[in-house]
Protein 1
Amino acid sequence: MSIYTEESVYLPEVVESGCIQVKRIDRVLKDGMVISTRNNRHVLAPGDDLTNEDPIVQAVAKAVWTDEVIANYKMALSTKQF
């Protein structure tokens, strides 16, 4: 009997603006061998709610999103620098 499992891998990338681009790779495995993958992407802006994010993404945001980074991002938005 075959055993099917699923797993997700998160690959966060921080860009110059302080935003975090998150790539999530969802995999379906049959007896430990990958039989299907699907890629998903989303972007988080400094100060966004991280409640539903993976712990890896939360840790990156906590390290990168200082008060200064969040303030600079909000200022750039208000002056339309992005």
Protein 2
Amino acid sequence: MNHNLHILQTYPFEKLTQLIAGISPPKDLTPIALSIGEPKHPTPQFIMDTLTTHIHELATYPTTLGSLKLRQTITEWLIRRFNLPATSIDPKTQVLPVNGTREALFSFAQAAINTSLDYDSPPLVIMPNPFYQIYEGAALLAGAKPRFLSCTKANHFVPNFDDIRPKEWKRCQLLYLCSPANPTGTVIEIPLLQKLIALADKYDFVIAADECYSEIYQDEANPPPGLLQAAAAMGNTDYRNCIVFHSLSKRSNCPGLRSGFVAGDAEILSRFLKYRTYHGSAMPLHVQAASQAAWSDETHVIENRILYRAKFAAVEKILQPVLPIDIPPASFYIWLHTPISDIEFARNLFAQEHVTVLPGSFLSRNMDGMNPGQNYVRIALTPSTDICIEAAQRIRRLIKSSYT
């Protein structure tokens, strides 16, 4: 077995299960789960109809590259959404469908990391802290060492890349970005993205930009920028060293469809395609057809954002008087600062109010004697508005009864 398996940490949701094991919450309260970022809005009917219309294609092996029609549709969406030059993305070489970005974010590191280079120590994979745990696991199992950058309120929850020394940039082979961020909802703006692109060019590392929350944001007139958008604006229209990851899970409420794409540097994607061909990760044809329909429509995405904004507004109104909260510019998470330990708060909230949230320290790693997720919990506003309102009222009740 891979000897690096033993250094993987317990997954956050396993830690949460262990945390609340043996607790008997009030039986008269319906359980409310705000711990998992699984969209609960209905999947649009037209996507489901397309899926079933093409179900007969189960009888055909799909190719790893995917259909050209799907890749053309994704290309058109990228150009519209991020204001890219019309001819800067070639659907034949710069777009690749994937079975959800979770598997792609993991497998990309396995293809991108080169442990044969002559370093004094393992290559580095730089990532935010707190972070999506796939980044860390992907780095470790590829034989690299994670280099965490703490995201704290003091730096507006944006990684301070100035903390990376030149000798660390030289060892860096892969930089994971997450914007909008999980769990904070922070957005990295174009100037910083361009600074990182310049560093990638100077030190020859790849930027893997997880942009899966890019379509859930507060200001309809100000969508979050993307890595390819930043690259094109600085003249890097071949997107050298830049790879973006997008998904239909959050955008279109299709987490079970397991559909997304990667796009960017054609040379890198050609080698990633070779890896995926052996990996056996082709997207089924009926899923490709449903995905093409989803990427072609924006009406349902706008409606989706309206629903999330209503939930944020309702929850903020309930909680703000007892525990100040910051509404993030994007994502469907609230990164809530707790009046006590995040672990104790999550345990008490479950025990007294039958509401489950995820302790922030479960999403982070200790650095220099501190955990940047400590005293925060991640609240996923994925259930219906009524359920989110009920959950907020229970959280308020706990705070007023125990911490004021």
Protein 3
Amino acid sequence: MSIATARRSRLADQIPLVRVPPHQRIVLANGVAVVVMPRPEIPLIAFSAILRGGVMGDPPGKTGLASLTAGLLERGAGARDFLAFAQTVEGAGGSFLAAAGHEAISVGGQFLSHDQDLLLSLLADALTTPRFEPAELELLRARQIEQIKALKDSDPSELLPSYGRALLFGEHLYGRSVIGSEASLARITHADVVSYAAREIGANRLTLIFVGDLDASALIDSATRLFGTWRRAPSPALPVPEPPLLPGRRVLLVDAPDSTQAYFWIGSRGVDKQFPQRAALDIANTLFGGRFTSMLNSELRMKSGLSYDAKSGFARGSKSGEFSIRSYAETDKAVQAIDLTLGTLAHLKRQGVTREQLESSQTYLLGQFPLGLETSADWAAALGEIELYHLGLPYIEGYGPALRQVRLADAARVIRQVFPDPDDIAMVLIGDAARLREAARRYGTVAEMKLTDPEFFWQVVVPAR
């Protein structure tokens, strides 16, 4: 064992393991789950409300409905219109934000401890009596459409996942853009929002999480009073089907005329939240594309100077999400950058990682993991993840020990089983199609659409000429 390896091993052993602080969980008669974790160190209460469903409840052709509905939850509720609601939150020095995901709508934020009753009142109003004012819907929808257009104009790389997931997953839930598209957002009506809320929002889909300097008994009593008689949604959230596994290469070229940069996304189906070899996979991905000194960033940025950023990661849901690689290069260097990316992936598949690399990644992750669980807001988010995906406390408490137990054979196994073969990937290229079209054909069957097209979905693409 080298001196550096021995030092890393000692350092890893000194990093304390994470324990979940004591907390309570109760379920009200109507199905609302309430989780309370006292942490009196700082006079704040963080909260997270998880409503199962999310984008899963968007009707065909109206992706973005869950996102708009979530946005409206913070734009007026109960006796307060949008301005009064926002001023009440701001006046208390609090925060209150709602957003949609593929499998849930989440509402979160934090308030000072002495505003515990106000927090509960605002949250109850937002979830049980949202105003859904038509004028606010119009403003929110216009802003969301303009945000998409602005990204297309200024930073289309931010839209790579929307195109990539649509290409990779097609009509499956995970192929839908959470934010919607210009076209789908324009089709959404006020009646759609009201119908979505009646169908997808209710007590039996809700988990409330409160963490911080709180009076647990009083909070549970107040939550029972405010939410205990709330109506149930007509049905529980549907289970997510396993997404399809589509072999072979597929390429989508998104034409951005005169662009001097080419942005690329390379993806394949990955794993779900319950994947048992999570620690080994995280170690392998950290080495491949998950930190600044990763293989990808070393090859594309530090050694070749082709790109300023290259990264990889896994998006994990209740079913297998995507593994993806993202980077960019000048248009005339795009082929070189893509070839180097695929070559680095092939090298990982062929050679794996060394013992020294593995131990470096172990130490890095063991040090980073506790840093993500320092604040009450961190714990509210972590408990929300556990609740949404039915993970159990070992998902947190067992992660550190699992990291320490990973061996070279474990890393080799997940690299072989989970990381894709370079010939079995979906690829999105955003750039000047006139300069990239011939090069794109090197990587597989090419379909093409315009960056200005108002959809992200693969159904609208046409074969490249």
